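Per reviewer request, we include the raw input and output of the structure prediction for the construct analysed in the revised manuscript.
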Amino acid sequence: IPPEDLPRLMRDLYEANIQLQTRLLIEFQLHTMTRPNEVAAASWLEFDLKNHMWVIPADRMKRNRDHTIPISSEVNQILTQLHSMCDGSNFVFPSSRSKTGHANTQSANMALKRMGYQDRLTAHGLRSIASTTLHDHGFPNELIEIALSHTSGNQTRDAYDRSQQIERRRPMMQW
């Protein structure tokens, strides 16, 4: 969906007959610009709430390198709410079917489909909304691409430049 439809999506999300955890998962993914599998399997051990950071380990990332995300105050609020719901699980989004597992990586897609967004929006498409919106509002392409955990396309540069521009990305992620 185009970014101008985001307010409608958020209204639909809050009015939908879905589990609170699923609503928070979609909201969390939109705020963090992450892939559905990265969110569904997020572990509490990956978060440094004191420094407002989420470090997704390399083995869970498409690029096979750690990805650090500065988390916004809204994400902190979501995490606080989720922590009170997790019932001791190691996962931020625990499985509703298993005491030891995490949420299904398709939970967001199934909810979006039930909300009437079939063939118009997928969970992965939330990344496109975020990217388009940030580009439209003048944020630097370099920071947006880092936030999406994309490579530059230059293998030499990618091999040497491991900077994640955390402090430069903080204001963008908060916005």
